[in-house]
Specification:
The protein is an alpha+beta fold. It contains ten helices and 16 strands.
């Protein structure tokens, strides 16, 4: 399981990087079977230069990101002369000023430099493309600056990315990569094990710079809400890119060099108490009772608008939960009753985005989709999940913050769905009814043998009633949570299981 997840994460990232192109080309890798496993020769075992100190007076880059701050970057003309020359030339012309980061993937990178803002534009200072080459001295450490390309370094242009990557890269991880044909020098392995990054990109892209101040800004920026194409839902703007000189200021290569607070841990909102008068939803399930749901329009505006409007129009009244999986979720909202129907208030599908501050804790309400958040419609699911152990987290093959682990250990949920679906609500009363409903008898397609009916979904105002976020709140052992605090947690880009291949056109996927 761990092996499959690690490889899937790497290949997904590789696929995403191959889409950092001047032509917008994407490569579809669904299960790794089409990937060549031909052994490659390990690169030259040279010293890694990413953290080599610049000298006073060396040319540097100062990149100001709107609402975040200024990032300072050391350049390496000694290893990537054309890449550095191109970037400086474009910066001096003001080419990058006002552009945006059009593609952002948490634990991987943020990408910008396209005047079109779509990943399909841009050119070098010489016009068209150029070959920036690669150099074994420069690797994809967190904070590395490199050119996006459409298949080779000969297609470098103006588009670039800054790596965030992952931490805790081990020998086991390298072993997984090597089974897929990747090869690394001993010095590369030692470097990545200490510093993290994205080693599977080495040798395919032109690395030409390294962040030495403002790495915390890059890591915060990677948490923006994005759509199904990883485009930020709110523009992440490059105010300016200026060419300057290094004046001897402190070098902060590592995230540990900063007083860095994980944005996800600060901003997770699943268990934030609603205010009196705030819009909430009451879902009456036949033979079970009322389930009350807090909504998050500030984080999932289109998702909330769609659900509330459907509810006001009586769209959900009388429909069923057509798919129920114990210790996972209950799914409904399809007028066809089989997982193949439903549409948004705008007709067809809509993109509700993905938000890393809303997680799949038990009681979370989210839209089902058929492969991306751009295929949201009317179908939704309510999470039950299970409580996770350290062994379970190891099997996930993804990194969670201590706060996220705490939520999933103590309250349960489905962390492997985080980052792939639009979470827009959280049950604050009636969670015990959801847990009871998930135990109904089902057929081989997880359809209840006796209809589990949604009698009505009504839009109401919160009147200050007791908040019972957790299943433990229903057994009399928990304290009153009416003055609830926000629980800190982190979401992860995680792989869903083989259930994704089920015939339903709009479905969640189970582990």
């Amino acid at each position: 399981m761990l092996k499959r997840r690690l490889l899937a994460a790497a290949l997904c990232a590789l696929t995403a990087t191959c889409a950092m192109t001047a032509c917008g080309k994407d490569i579809d890798i669904s299960d790794g079977t089409s990937v060549s496993t031909t052994e490659k020769a390990a690169p030259e075992n040279v010293d890694i230069a990413n953290y080599t100190a610049p000298e006073k007076g060396d040319t540097i880059i100062e990149m100001k990101i709107k609402d975040y701050g200024t990032v300072k970057i050391r350049l390496f003309p000694e290893y990537a002369d054309k890449g550095v020359e191109n970037f400086i030339g474009l910066a001096e012309k003001g080419y990058y000023d006002g552009l945006s980061f059009h593609r952002v993937i948490k634990d991987f990178m943020i990408q910008g430099g396209d005047p079109m803002g779509t990943g399909s534009g841009g050119e070098s200072m010489w016009g068209g493309e150029f070959d920036g080459g690669t150099n074994a001295h420069l690797v994809h450490a967190a904070g590395a600056l490199a050119y996006a390309n459409s298949g080779s370094t000969a297609t470098d242009g103006s588009q670039f990315y800054i790596v965030t990557g992952v931490q805790n890269i081990t020998d086991d991880v390298f072993s997984q990569y090597e089974q897929y044909g990747y090869a690394f020098s001993d010095k590369q392995k030692d470097f990545y094990k200490q510093n993290g990054g994205a080693p599977f990109l080495d040798g395919n892209y032109t690395v030409f710079g390294q962040v030495y101040d403002g790495l915390d800004i890059i890591f915060k920026a990677q948490y923006v809400g994005t759509d199904a194409n990883d485009k930020p839902l709110s523009d992440l703007i490059i105010e300016s890119v200026k060419v300057g000189k290094y004046n001897g200021e402190e070098l902060k290569w590592h995230l540990s060099d900063y007083n860095y607070d994980d944005p996800t841990a600060q901003d997770v909102v699943n268990f934030t108490a609603p205010e009196k008068g705030e819009t909430v939803v009451n879902m009456k399930i036949k033979d079970y009772g009322d389930v009350k749901i807090k909504l998050f329009p500030e984080y999932a505006p289109k998702g909330v608008e769609n659900f509330v409007t459907h509810a006001k129009e009586g769209y959900y009244d009388g429909l069923t939960f057509h798919r129920v999986i114990n210790d996972f979720m209950i799914q409904g909202g399809d007028p066809s009753g089989d997982g193949t129907g439903g549409e948004s208030i705008w007709g067809g599908k809509f993109d509700g985005g993905k938000y890393f501050n809303l997680i799949h804790a038990a009681g979370a309400v989210a839209y089902a989709n058929s492969g991306s958040t751009s295929t949201n419609g009317s179908q939704f699911y309510i999470v039950t999940g299970k409580k996770y152990t350290d062994d379970d987290f190891a099997q996930l093959g993804t990194t969670l913050s201590a706060s996220a682990e705490k939520v999933y250990k103590e309250q349960g949920g489905t962390p492997f769905l985080d980052g792939s679906y639009t979470v827009f609500g959280q049950v604050y009363d009636g969670l015990d009814l959801i847990f009871k409903a998930q135990t109904v008898d089902t057929d081989d397609n997880n359809k209840p043998k006796t209809d589990l009916v949604i009698e009505s979904v009504t839009v109401e105002e919160y009147n200050g009633e007791k908040l019972r976020w957790y299943i433990s709140d229903y057994d009399g052992s928990a304290e009153d949570t009416s003055e609830a605090e926000t629980t800190e947690a982190e979401t992860t880009e995680a792989e869903t299981s083989e259930a994704a291949s089920e015939a339903s056109t709009e479905t969640t996927t189970a582990e």
